[in-house]
Fold each of these.
Amino acid sequence: MPYAVPLWRSIRDDLRAQIRAGLLKPGDRIPTTRKLMEQHSTTSATVRRAVDSMIESGELIGRQGLGVFVADRSEEA
């Protein structure tokens, strides 16, 4: 029996897909935690885990008091 994908990974994969599709571009602010909670019917802890994993990998940048933004990864190339 296949294992279900944890919800935080599903949220992370959804954000990655939006970035790849150009719906979220470098410098764009991602939806708020509250909005992501509503979209995925989950808790703030689950959303934070997804977002934090993307911050750790350099895909997103958190700016205190401003929000979380898509990183400009072209600077790394």
Amino acid sequence: MVEVKFCENNFVHGVEEVITKLQENNENAKVIVESCLGYCGDCAEGPYALVNDELVQADSADELYEAICEIIG
């Protein structure tokens, strides 16, 4: 199972929609939301997630979702 972590502070960039889509469409993804992941500089710049503890960034929430889906298959 792939672990995908999101920061609550990054919700301002639309990642709530990404979380919902992952939970509905990807059974092999364990979605975790934490209060802070320690990537404050990246968090302020745009949407991101940690996929198996690897940073994945994108310019938009939709692009982040696509990037995560490519990784988790």
Amino acid sequence: MHAVVATVVSAVAAKDKPVDQDTNIVAGWTAFWIFLLLIVAVAVIGFALTRSLRTAARAKDAGVYGDAPAADDPESPKAE
């Protein structure tokens, strides 16, 4: 509750304060391009992770990690 009151009081107090345009700093085009590059980086990492997990799943089904291969496992739905 204290945080809500402090936020409201500071908002009311800042309402009458004039904004100096010389010190009003905004993000520019450089920040926009960096943001877009970060989005692309996350997409590439997600794509690589998906491919890696699929490869690991195929290797596990083939018995590479010491498990019985999926085709030999009678409980596996792929064996039918």
Amino acid sequence: MALQSTTLAAAEDDAAAKPNIVVILVDDMGYGDPGCFNPESKIPTPHIDSLARDGMRFTDAHAPGPLCHMSRYGLMTGRYPFRTDVSRWPTQPLIAPGQITIASLAQSRGYQTAMVGKWHLGFKENGYDQPLPGGPVDCGFDSFFGIRASTDIPPYFYIRGNAAVQPPSDRIEANNSAGWSPIQGEFWRAGGIAPDLQLKDVLPRFTDEATSIIKRHAENKKDAQPLMLYLAYPAPHTPWLPSEAFAGKSGAGMYGDFLMMVDDQIGRVLDALRAAEMEDDTLVVFTSDNGPVWYDADTERFDHDSTGGLKGMKGDAWEAGHRMPFIARWPNRVAAGSTSEQLVCFTDLLATMADLFEVPLPDDAAPDSYSFLPALTGKAAGETELRDDFVMQPGARSMMTIRQGNWKLITALGSGGFTKPSRIPSGDGAPAGQLYDLGNDLGESNNLYAAKPEIVARLTAQLKRVVKSGRSRTRAATKDVARGG
């Protein structure tokens, strides 16, 4: 009897260590958009809010870069995106053959792995009538259905596995919307488009695919294989294309209407988990890849602050470019309605999964990944190394930023991204960079660079160490786990 009880307990522990994992990444949503992060939001987000009600909000979580491809590279690999040439993505894969990813790690632990949505990390391109190597199915995913990049970057076509469903043989002309900036509204670029793709249908099409995967997985439960699903919505990134059910329903114009539609699609996925009786043993992680394209004039026009009081926008070194809403729901393991101030970067998802699976990472894998499992579950950290700094390169790639404790250093003047001016020359008595005490100045309004030279020197030295060493996570004795590719 004792042996039977021990065996049962071991099986329960193994099941608890292998929950289903669903990562939902939206695109260009601001810290102040969901109501659970900004009670003054003019955009109803009941399904995102339900994740916060039933799970944990992380209030100090950051994209590893404030642009789509940067952010996704870090999330997938546990490696800061400034360590590779992310500009290669239009024609070359950013993830190297054999590089460990969140998918290959899960696959090595017996998971069924699936990706749906926007990749934006490159393929080896040699014509769209040819296979597209280097994408999700070569990086640890058993299946992929999605698009190569954003729905405003041609060519536009669906990909299944490593091949175009239909090549982009038709053409679509450029479009934009009156009353918005050139990169807002119903904006898309001219280029090739596949006959079977309409931009307005992409979002619900991805939800259909994701819910089908969940349903099929539930029907095949007998194999006891857990599911990892990465659902990367290309919205509310432009073009903003809300369906008729949501048009005019928010208090934030076309953008708010489209985000309402995104929230509704997330609700469909959560409903699918519930219908499949997978809700209780699924860890759902929700976040956005980077900040919004939302100007001060938009805030004034709609009285909606998409950045939640943070400075800047997409692409910027300032907080609005990379501080993201981040929520984790795991019934009976993560306290409902809880909040964590633990510093988190998307690169940390890989180490957190390894911690969850109780497998050490190879020394050369995920060099900038720290587990946040202790914060998530409330257990003591033990030997887990916690993140205490964060290094990032903004969109302009002409400066660097480091965060340590409450101090944040930006190595030059200007936003470094979409907010103008991106760069401001120093001189005539102006400081060479920016230093902010986020504990007292989250809005980054008081530059202390000249007043705190000792803090500038300390952060500069740490920044150089992280960049030069090629890693920020401490080296440790490790054993190998299966690699992607």
